[in-house]
Design brief:
This protein has 84 residues and is an alpha+beta fold. Helices cover 29% and strands 38% of the residues. The protein is elongated and about 65 Å long.
């Protein structure tokens, strides 16, 4: 009986670790709201614009820095992106 309880405990730990890993690796997306949005080279309002994305565009969110979301092309102000 002790062996069965030990195995169950190990399975729970493995499941918890798998869930944490999945959350870390799951892609996060946001959508542009409020009009066209500048994608900037750095997370600073005056930084060089590298691209403009249209209202409603879907963006992959890689992280957050200084009030900006990091996206594959650069940075966008987080106040104009809605996470869904």
């Amino acid at each position: 009986m002790a062996k069965k309880a030990e195995n169950t405990e190990k399975n729970v730990k493995v499941a918890e670790k798998t869930e944490k890993t999945a959350k870390k690796t799951a892609k996060k997306y946001g959508f542009v709201v409020g009009g066209a949005l500048n994608v900037r080279k750095e997370p600073v309002k005056g930084a060089e614009i590298v691209k403009v994305v249209e209202n409603g565009a879907k963006l992959e969110i890689l992280g957050k820095e200084n009030g900006f979301f990091k996206v594959p092309e650069g940075y966008v102000m987080n106040e104009y992106v809605e996470i869904r």
